[in-house]
Amino acid sequence: MTSRNNKKDTRERAIDRRVSLTEYEDNDIDIEETAKNTEYQKGSTPTAKYGVLFQKMRHAIPESYACSIGCGGEKCKYCNAPASGKFSEEHMQIKGLFSSWITDKIIAISRPSTTLVERYDIIGQFEQKNIKSIINLQLPGEHPACGLNKLEVEGFSYKPEDFMKKKIFFYNFGWRDYGVGTTSGVLDTVKVMQYSISEGAVAVHCHAGSGRTGVLIACYFIYANRMTAEEAIHLVRSKRPGSIQTVYQVKFIQEFQQYIRPFKIVYSLQNDCDGNEAPPFNLSQYIVRQRYLLHGQQFRTFKYLPKIVYIICERLLTLNKEMDRDYNPAMRQADKRDRFVKDGKRWKGKKTEKLDKYYSKHQDSSSIGSENNDNDDEAAQESISLQVIEALELDDYDGYVHKRVEELKQKLNAEINIWKTLGKEENAVVLAKLLWDWIEELHDPVLRAQDFQKMLLLYDHPYEGLASLDSCSTATVVYLFRFLSALGPLNESDTLNLIEKFLSCLTQRNIVNCDSTMSSTSTDFRPRATNFSISIKDGISERLLKFFKNLLGALSEDDRNHIKTTNKMKKLLFSLPKPGEELESHSLNTTNSYKKNSTKIQSSRQGRGGSNKYNYEEEEDENEDEVEFRSTSRQHKFR
């Protein structure tokens, strides 16, 4: 029993490592608890403390004059919270600052000053509370008359390098006082915020830590936790009253929700988080939208590859490779057979007859005796592989599979942390149907009719034929056929069946092939034939099958150092993850590289209002993807 539990724990850890590449593990919010806190607020429209007239007047008054008159100089209650007497200890979670924990890893604070940092050992408090990053939303030179000391040379009330010396990361995304950023700029900021939360707690501040700070935190909840704008605003205000102060700030949060809503759609023609039907999209559109939400290692891994395809294929490979339970062949045999059973019902379809025959044969062979244990082990390993292969070949699903698939599609469009659920799905048939449905429901096929011409001419040179496709199509095709290769040694019949199935879905056409030397069926192979009204003619389908059979062979013998193709194609091939490959160490190396490289970013103050223009020192051997990721962050090293 202990051995069985240890093996299960090992599998779960492997799943978690693989899924962690696609989703930071801690989104920092207990959704059920949040729902309780905001339940009474649902349906209400958030209001603002300051209206449009105030906003216009505030921006018409010079910054220095407004600060000296409105804030009170040294008596500013936000810049000298302890002396003001306005805040209780409950509202000074960081002693010396007006500060409130919004979640366990996000704290909103008023701006620190050098005097307060030294007097109350704020950096020491940060270290004690595991606050690893500070995000500053002020513009340099802002509120010069406030606080206990003059602005430092960097233009802020404290020295960012004092925090950085203690390995606390510093980011500056400047917005105007009582203002907001741009939707695309805020999206970049919440990506950096999510990365920072994966490292430790994050402190966010503007001047008072209420207006702009509340906007950013609310937008983060919309991005990372799929809250509505109203839910996010109510949550922030429940933890820090008075946050999100102006009409424009409330409106911006609502606009941000609408801005990122299309980026989170995984399955078209399903309801999204707002209950609206998602319009169809093609592969290129999905990849572009996907990139808006990803950063760092995720951005590089899925720059051309759909994340949903990766997650499903990796889970199928995990099911394909694991040796379940202990090494008792009879127990394994029963367990594998039960994988196709739900609530006492067997999955139905043509291919399950083959499974029945195999398990019957395996039952007989397992009773021979201990001298055949090695043969039993090999047979059991084959049965696991057979389960996934048969699931991929099935074209007839029962009611439970349809219901489970539709449920997962809805959740993928509307819920958070669903990637983890999908990464632990135990039913290979459900996973296979999810994969086929996603490919088939694309508005345009991955392989279009115009893509066939060069592929048909170069069917003996598959890498050269793929070079004629766009990067997204190439990456998707290569990964899927690498996945097919990784399933293990397949017999000729299964190989051709799966190639035909893949090709039929990728082209969204029926594959008509009556050549018995190529086809495993000698008849039309039509996965879910009612879906496709167009067929590929016999001669064309035969050459396409040869092309992809040659591609599968080339990928099976893949030596990345000796691939003969264009440099662009090589770069694309090398950037794709190998199915089933351990990615944890690669991800960690990327994180360390990000930390090392980000300290090279300098800032130089230019233009009106002290706005920042960022210059990047790039190493000669640095690739374009690393530069692209680094350009989204604004970590400063002041010199």
UniProtKB/TrEMBL annotation:
InterPro entries, A to Z: Dual-sp_phosphatase_cat-dom, Prot-tyrosine_phosphatase-like, PTP, PTP_cat, PTPDC1_PTP, Rho_GTPase_activation_prot, Tyr_Pase_AS, Tyr_Pase_cat
Boundaries of every Tyrosine specific protein phosphatases domain copy: 184-251
Protein name listed in UniProt: DgyrCDS323
Keywords: Hydrolase, Protein phosphatase
GO BP terms in the entry: cilium assembly
Domain Tyrosine-protein phosphatase intervals: 1-255, 97-262
SUPFAM superfamilies: (Phosphotyrosine protein) phosphatases II, GTPase activation domain, GAP
Compositional bias annotation for Acidic residues: 617-627
UniProt-annotated stretches for the region Disordered: 358-379, 582-639
Residue spans of biased composition, Polar residues class: 586-606
Organism: Dimorphilus gyrociliatus
Any Pfam family hit: DSPc
A molecular function (GO) term: protein tyrosine phosphatase activity
